Amino acid sequence: MTTKPTPRVRVPAKAAAGEMIEIKTLISHEMESGQRKDAQGATIPRKIINKFSASFNGKPVFSADWHPAISANPYQSFFFKATESGEFTFTWKDDDGSEYSAKNKISVG
Amino acid sequence: MPLRSNGLTRRSTITAGAMAAFASLLGARMAFADEKAVMAEIRKLYGDKALAEGRIRLDIPEIAENGLVVPVNIEVESPMTEADHVKAVHIFADGNPQPGIVSYSFTPACGKASAATRMRLAQTQNIVCVAEMSNGSLHMAKANVKVTIGGCGG
Q1: How many of the other CB atoms lie within 10 Å of CB of A34?
Q2: What phi, psi does A76 have (nearest 5°)?
Q3: Which residue of A65, B3, B31, B92 is 20 to 30 Å from A24, comparing CA positions?
Q4: Domain range A7-33+48-101, CATH class
């Protein structure tokens, strides 16, 4: 029952200059740890999202290296100090090489 | 109870059989990390640098009913300026099959060295959090979580 990972991101649409905002992200993914066994006793191979990164106007802001101990449908929240209007890019990197991304705009003023 | 010719009583044979079965069961179980493995991971990253206490707020539930989804929230005290900020935070567990949970990297643009995610815990264990500051100093925090139902699948 593998579904295509869908990212969901919550970023406030507007913020005052200097305001601290919290960014919440969630992506649907099984995060198969490589520890589980199937009914025949064979190990199910590992397949997780191993890296989440966030950048603002092209500049890196925050990143997280996820290990297999991260729960399925990984959630990640972090903070950002809003200083100017711009666009966030969020990227999730999968073990199989694929990348999922989301973009969110914020206006500051 | 009559002794058998090889000197084993019925009871001792049953006990030995049960122990052997138990031992093979244990052998079949996966190996877990321990405190040493966590320290080894930290040494691999930072060598023998001193780990200071304090400055880290490691917010995890005391008792986790479901080991599959345990919220973990960290915050490191720091002004988060170009000159003085938190560079990285690593979280480890000493009772999971692998010690690593997550490694964060922060920049001054974050404004606040705080992040939250959800982790899997196989059993009751300690969570260790190490923060690396921009001046190279290290801070550490530790907390215990009691896990009612392990989140290891398998």
Answers
A1: 14
A2: -145, 130
A3: B92
A4: mainly beta
Structure tokens at B61: 């539930």
For residue B86, the Cα-to-chain-centroid distance in whole angstroms is: 22
Residue appearing with tokens 């059989």: B17
- The CA-atom distances, in angstroms, between B93 and each of B7, B98, B145, B146, B153 are 47, 8, 10, 12, 17
List all residues of chain B from 121 to 140 with a beta carbon under 8 Å from chain A.
121
CB–CB contact A71 B118 (8 Å):
yes
> Which residue's entry shows tokens 């191993």?
A50
For tokens 């809003």, the residue is: A82
Residue B25: which H helix or E strand, with range?
helix B10-28
User: In which residue ranges of chain B is pLDDT below 50?
Assistant: 1, 3, 23-28, 154
Which value does ipTM take for this structure?
0.92
Which residue is closest to A39 within chain B, CA to CA?
B154
